[in-house]
Amino acid sequence: MSIEVQSQIVTDDGRALVDMARLGLGIIMVDPLLIKNSLDSQQLVPILTNWQHPESQPINLICLGKNI
């Protein structure tokens, strides 16, 4: 699948992305926990649920101590 995107707005702020998606300004790919409330209230709806970004990788976290 190929989708050509011509961005007018660019940000690396996840909350700003969510706000813009709620306003109908485009589609976003973010951590589902960041949009849980918006999904629950149907402000946002999932699309392309069977698609995975070809460059996506799992995030691994190693905690070395209790005070993180």
UniProtKB/TrEMBL annotation:
This is LysR substrate-binding domain-containing protein. It comes from Granulosicoccus antarcticus IMCC3135.
